[in-house]
Amino acid sequence: MNIAIIASVILGILLLIMTVLFIFRIILTWYPNIDLTQFPYSLAYIPTEPFLAFTRKIVPPLGGIDISPVIWLGIITLLREILLGQQGIITLALRGM
């Protein structure tokens, strides 16, 4: 198996996991009384919080609503489409091999 194919599969899995984690973070914003550092919530909190903390510095919560998980979900979805979608850069490069 070609290393480029393996790399694209790993990248696809990583982007999928991050997508799911950010969706969980969006859902968790509906429950403000949950302690995110407690298991099982920490499974979504620990890997996503560095991204969200950075984004909150740039885009503060609007009207008390934290939109940073939505921003990152959009970024990751866009990245996945640009790189691995039907007309994605990596997909087209692999077809040319």
From TrEMBL:
Report the family membership: Belongs to the YggT family.
Which protein is depicted? YggT family protein
Keywords from the named record? Membrane, Transmembrane, Transmembrane helix
Q: Any keyword Transmembrane helix?
A: yes
| Gene Ontology CC annotations of this record | membrane
Question: What organism, scientifically named, is this protein from?
Answer: Cyanobacterium aponinum (strain PCC 10605)
Which InterPro entries does the record associate with it?
A: CCB3/YggT
Q: Which residues cross the membrane?
A: 7-31, 70-94
